[in-house]
Amino acid sequence: MRVFSSSFTFRTGGELEFIDITGSVERIVGESGVSEGVAVIFAPHATGAIVINENDPSLLEDLRGMLERLIPRDAGYRHPVNAHSHLRSILMEPSKVVPVSGGTLLLGTWQSIMWVEVDTRPRTRRVVVTVLGD
Prior knowledge:
With 134 residues, the chain is of the alpha+beta class. 25% of the residues lie in helices and 39% in strands. Strands 1-8-3-5-6 form a 5-stranded antiparallel β-sheet, with helices on one face. The longest helix is centred in the middle third of the chain and has 14 residues, at 57-70.
């Protein structure tokens, strides 16, 4: 079994920004040489998440609204400054696993891999992709 790992970085604009990272993940899968296996996409950050869903502006606005309603920015949290960012991140996961077949990600027609920035300010982020298989 082959194991290939690489990462990429990008800059975010701030709170509740959604960034399509599908192309960057696909590039790493292609570089891996793995034809059949899985790709693990991991965010080594406490205030960001990886989601897989449709990259549609109205749906992303709905997601933004849901996160704001479920975990408001200021609700008397004990953690200073960005408790709501950490709590929003907990609702989503820092990693996803996607099957690889024929050397490509097996995403559905409308699925994209997206970074969700939940911190209060712009950040430089890194995503690690590990591809395992043959």
